[in-house]
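Work through this:
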Amino acid sequence: MRVLLMAYGSRGDVEPMLALGTALQALGAEVRVCAPPDFAELLDGVGIPLVPLGPSLRDMATKAVTETAKPPVESLPERAARMVATTYQAVVTAIEGCDAVVATGLLPAAAAARSAAEELGIPYLFVAYFPTYLPSPHHPPLAWPGRPLPPGVTDNRVLWDQNAEHLNALFGEAVNTHRSAIGLPPVDDVRDHVFTDRPWLAADPLLSPWPQPADLDVVQTGAWTRPDERPLPAELEAFLDAGEPPVYVGFGSMPVRDPHDVTRAVVEAARARGHRVLLSRGWADLALTDEDGDCFLVGEVNHQALFGRVAAVVHHGGAGTTTTAARAGVPQIVVPQMADQPYWAGRVAELGIGVSHDGPTPTFDSLSAALGTALTPDIRSRARELAAAIRTDGAAVAAKLLFDAVGPHTGPASA
């Protein structure tokens, strides 16, 4: 069996696909990944071929953060049309000989992946990494740029109906114009076309349950996490051994405004609480603010090995970082920036394993207060208790489901 995994998004979108890819390889499948070129080195490290998709996502994200005051050159529908065309060309290049496509990420990109799969007559699956991306009577949809949720409306079904209308207005023309150009019929509802009536949810059922009853037949597999056996760098080991566990601070593949001010705020807040600091450079380009020995800067490291050795994890609230910290049994302070991150911040607070920071920009006062709460014995104890109950087999479960549905043979198949 040959499988194409398509992820147009940040590291948080790509990394779970690598977990699924390695689980599929263990069953004897051949795997290719279609993703932004930023992750070429990451895929080289796991031996999965990459077909680059579009320009550098890091460059685009950094530009979006640093140039928020400037009007966009293109409208969102225009950008959607370009994304559909770019993704389709990349997927068509990668899909030859494949038996199935698994897609995630931005809606126009996933729509293009489904069109390519439809042309070849092979199964297409969509996966979400958090429940509130999928329609449900139990939660409202995410608010899209320029399309805020209407005030005063509390019926989630009404909000999801409006969400479908908004997404059709934003992306319908781009998707259907492209489908017409390649000889496919138009779709009436872009969102439901991309999600299908049986999407997968790659999230831990304890951390992130899918509430029932629901209209969609969601298949929740558990979070897709790739085991990481890399040792920590010797210099980092020496820092960890030289004192009490530090507070980890990192925002993953998420640029932030004023990274110097953010770094200074979190370092000073941690110091005021008597803690050393471990900064992760990431796409925010965090850097040391002074040469004092109580702070250490790291790049790409094994979070699975690291998080169990820190006092707390201050992060942006990506699905992967939240799950890894929860598995490590360490208190979390989530500083959400966008998209699914407010959801994860809320879940961390609801579960009693950490603190949801109010807003995307931490200050000395806000971080000091958050650390004071997160490091209490009750939260430490709850974090350790919950860690033991989190599943670790999500990628293996999903790989087996896909293998059983599509089969080990080569050539077009139907699920």
About this structure: Confidence is low (pLDDT under 50) at residues 410-415. Residues 2-225+393-406 form a domain with the Rossmann fold fold (CATH 3.40.50.2000). The chain has two domains: 2-225+393-406, 234-387. The longest helix spans residues 156-181.
